[in-house]
Amino acid sequence: MKNSFLLTLIFIFFLVSCMENSKQISQVHVVQDWKSILNEQISLLGHRNWILIVDKAFPLQNGSGIITIDTNEDLLSVLNYTLQQIDNSIHVKPIIYTDTELRFLTKDQIPDIEIYKASLAEIIDFSSSQELFHDSVFVKIDEASGYFKVLVLKTNGTIPYSSVFLQLDCKYWSAENEKQLRDKIRSEYNEE
What is the pTM of this model? Predict the structure, then answer.
């Protein structure tokens, strides 16, 4: 009787373990048609969601709200396509972040770094993007993935600190509109 009970417990632990592993594995997609998945996801994503376009060495994240797609394509091509799709949407716009470390990389370290930076500057406006230290990105993504979906588009890029991080914001409602609304609500409640 004890052996039967013990075998049942072992079997249950095995099933739970398999289910947990399948959940993690299902969060990673290696696809040839990543664009279709991106387009589908963009229609579902809203403000506070993130899309990360990352280099090959970017670590696979373990958060439950993180979906990773291996695009098997060049980082700048994936970034350009992603930004075009966001721009074509009616509901979201990107807040663009790059790694602070990228600015400090030199030709001595990465021979083609200036070419990469110039190509990146053709796609994003550095003056309107924000910089974050690489480790700060993980903190933001960890916080966001607990509540909101994070889509990671893994590329074949092999330049360190070349990833671009897009925090989605509402396209049809500005921060100034939100501030005015909150001020109005606050003033009405203070009058009572």
Answer: 0.81
